[in-house]
Amino acid sequence: MRIELERPLAWPVRPVQTTTGLHVSATSILIACADRALGIGMHDAFERNGHRIHVTHDPIAALDTLEADGSIGIVAVELALPHFDGLALVERMRKSVQRHLQVIVVAPDATAADVVRAMHLRAADFVSDPQDGSQLHGALARALAAHQAAAPLPAPPAPAPAPAGNGALHGALEDAYRHGLALIEAVKALRESQPTPAAPVAAPVAPPPVPAAAGENRRLAVLRTLQQSRVARDKYFPKGLFEDPCWDMLLDLMANHLRGRRISVSSLCMASGVAQTTALRRITELHDRGLVRRIADEKDGRRVFIELTEQGIAALSGYVEHIQELT
User: Cα 258–259–262 angle (5° rounding)?
Assistant: First the structure.
């Protein structure tokens, strides 16, 4: 049952003790929002504290930026994004990178269900009014404090070995020199006692087998190139002119299969680039054609995962190998 409230919910706010220490030079911030004015406003608010800021308006660009910049520790996500919701993007981010991320959800009209989902995804804070600078500042301060608390402490440097005495060092060098001379003489005697062998006929050398991990990395590189080329078209052509949600979802499923990750229905809908209702119909078509299957989450009965069938994996593997031969 979805609970609708007459007014937005307020996220439980912890008081900010001071503004000192808000600047952490090693921590970058990623802002993912469709509203460009909102992105500029948050950028200006956060930049005053000296942080490096990335602003993206596309979920694929947000994921690429997050994977490319390892210094990003804070992510601010707009909840209401076109064709997908911001919490689905947060779920994908949690699976894409293996590091501590503190997420600030910008949600002027959050419902109880949104708050519960955000809590399950370990969101650090909610901002109900992004025009309120004090809310943004407080949310950033709390997220930075949580990020610093979660970061592992650097290991202390190993103590330098104590220098040996001059007498002990001189004796060790003398012993090594004598052993070296004896080894050289033994090798010379062994070579002189052995007859010179006939030169062996060179046998054809078979190419070394390609490790499975290297093959998977090459397939991942091809899949990533295909995904990035499809995203790049939107920069030069009207958005919506090229829509192929089935293919986009198959590429995403194959890439995550090679990485050993499971993808939920909501996360896969986000990768399709179309409205969720359209994406759900396309998932049903892929299921009916035997390319994907649905698997219920054993820990959460409300969530369903989508994965490729053996037929889907074979088809995409053959396609990727063909593309590799062409290049």
Answer: 100
Mean confidence (pLDDT) of the chain: 75
For 25, the 3-state DSSP assignment is coil
Q: Report the candidate in 79, 73, 137 with the shortest Cα–Cα distance to residue 105.
A: 79
Task: Please report which residue ranges of 196-290 form alpha helices under DSSP H.
Answer: 212-236, 245-259, 265-272, 276-288
Number of H helices, E strands in the chain: 11, 10
Q: What is the pLDDT of residues 155-206, one digit of tens each?
A: 555 555 545 455 555 565 566 656 566 666 655 665 565 555 555 555 555 5
Q: At what angle do helices 245-259 and 310-326 cross, to 10 degrees?
A: 90
234-279 pLDDT, tens per residue? 778 887 787 888 998 999 999 889 988 888 888 888 888 788 888 8
Residue 273 neighbours by CB distance under 10 Å? 24
Q: What's the rounded Cα separation, in Å, for the pair 269 and 207?
A: 43
- 176 CB burial (10 A radius; 0-12, 13-18, 19+): exposed
- Amino acid found at 301: G
Please name the helix (run of DSSP H) or strand (run of DSSP E) that holds residue 92, with its range, or none.
helix 86-96
Amino acid identity for residue 264 in this structure: S
Q: Which of 321, 319, 312, 326 is nearest to 256 (CA)?
A: 312
Compute the half-sphere exposure of residue 177: CA atoms within 13 Å on the CB side of its CA.
Answer: 6
Sign of CA dihedral 22, 27, 33, 39: positive
Site of tokens 């900010």: 16
Q: How would you class 230 by CB atoms within 10 Å of its CB: exposed for 0-12, middle for 13-18, buried for 19 or more?
A: middle
| Integer Cα distance of 91 and 122 in angstroms | 10
Backbone angles phi, psi at 210, to 5 degrees: -80, 120
Pick from 119, 121, 125: nearest CA to 138: 125
Judge whether 136 and 46 are in contact, CB under 8 Å. yes
| Distance separating alpha carbons of residues 118 and 272, to the nearest angstrom | 22
Spatial distance between the Cα atoms of 149 and 102, rounded to a whole number of angstroms = 11
